[in-house]
Design a protein that fits this description.
The protein is built from 12 helices and 9 strands. The chain has about 375 residues and is mostly helical. The chain has a domain of about 240 residues. The longest helix is centred in the C-terminal third of the chain and has 54 residues. Belongs to the fatty acid desaturase type 1 family. One of its GO terms (biological process) is lipid metabolic process.
């Protein structure tokens, strides 16, 4: 390997092989001021380029017209801390600077800032018609691959000696991620022309993950509508200074762990906070939310007791909990990589632009075929 890619997972940065994941990131047209917490963040040319930063907690620092890397892992005294890295907006106008930053991050490229006069409609209208066509064969082939993969994973767990179980769990978690991908595409209405069938497939696919389909769909739609908008984006976004100052010490400690060593499973917190509270949904959405909640609670009420009855609590850990944790590792990783990089800002509503957010705020990753 010739280097690593510093990839942010929901605010958590991990070192990934440069040869394995090739990312292309598009920067924003404008970058607004933001507030991050920093401990001992010093000025240097390299940090100005967006490579260094600070511990997750410490003295608050306000940078005007700068972009921060919300999540780069740094091991310090055996711990993992999120650090901030500013990138000046004017620097991204320079092709040489973008090329240098891309090399430093392990990206294939960082694109030019999105012009202010470009709208999301312009982007959609520029796409070829075939990208909007639904491919039934491809959709159901994905279902078949996922079903076979997950079944094989459970079989491997049943046959693996204790020392091979971690590998079987990792494979099962990866296969279970396929269930989420199916639900994701159903939520985006790109799985089938039959929308009722789409919702049924999405609900069933996400049941083993205890992910209620409709609540996730509503929140995910909002994430796409408000990508990288402070407060409004329902995916990961930075903790604001005023919020942090009002947190009690136990919550601050929890956040330090959650945004540090436990970051690869931070999506569990998002799952628990966002998807089970009816108050977070409009009255017009609540009946659909209740249907999805009934589906996942039904799965828990029927399948969990059957697993425990047949294999005991250890069997429940082996066949459900560990694959579920493996799935959340990927869920956290995908979320972090997709919209987080040192040069990608989160903006206040008054400075936010939909085209810049969707294009300039998205990191595209080419994963290896396997």
């Amino acid at each position: 390997m010739q280097g690593t890619m510093a990839a942010s997972v929901c605010g958590y940065r991990v070192a990934l092989p440069k040869a394995s994941i090739n990312c292309r990131a598009q920067p924003k047209a404008k970058l607004s001021s933001q507030v991050v917490r920093s401990a001992g963040l010093k000025s240097s040319a390299r940090r100005a380029a967006g490579s260094l930063g600070s511990k997750f907690t410490g003295e608050p620092v306000v940078y005007q017209h700068a972009r921060f890397d919300p999540l780069e892992l740094k091991r310090r005294n055996g711990g993992i801390y999120a650090i901030a890295a500013p990138v000046a907006p004017y620097a991204l106008e320079d092709a040489e600077v973008r090329a240098r930053l891309a090399e430093e991050y392990g990206f294939q490229q960082i694109g030019e800032p999105v012009p202010e006069n470009v709208t999301l409609k312009n982007v959609i209208d520029s796409l070829p018609k075939e990208v909007f066509e639904i491919n039934n064969f491809k959709a159901w082939r994905t279902v078949a691959i996922t079903a076979v993969s997950y079944t094989l994973a459970l079989f491997l767990i049943s046959k693996s000696p204790w020392y091979l179980l971690p590998f079987a769990w990792a494979y099962a978690g990866t296969a279970a991620t396929g269930l989420f991908v199916i639900g994701h595409d159903c939520a985006h209405k790109c799985f089938s022309k039959n929308k009722l069938l789409e919702d049924i497939v999405g609900t069933i696919a996400m049941m083993p993950l205890i992910y209620p389909y409709e609540p996730w769909r509503f929140k995910h739609d909002r994430h796409h509508a408000k990508t990288n908008m402070l407060v409004e984006d329902t995916a990961w976004h930075p903790v604001m200074r005023k919020e942090w100052e009002n947190y009690p010490k136990p919550l601050k400690s929890f956040m330090e762990w959650g945004m540090g060593p436990l970051r690869p499973w931070a999506s569990i917190g998002h799952w628990a906070l966002w998807h089970f509270d009816l108050k977070k949904y409009r009255p017009s959405e609540q009946n659909r939310v209740k249907t999805s909640l009934a589906a996942v609670f039904g799965f828990m009420a029927v399948v969990w007791p059957l697993i425990i009855w047949k294999f005991g609590v250890v069997g429940w850990v082996n066949y459900w909990l560990m694959p579920w944790l493996g799935y959340h590792f990927w869920m956290s990783t995908f979320t972090m990589v997709h919209h987080t990089a040192p040069h990608i800002p989160f903006k206040d509503v008054k400075d936010w632009n939909s085209a810049a957010a969707q294009l300039g705020g998205t990191v595209h990753c080419d994963y290896p075929k396997w």
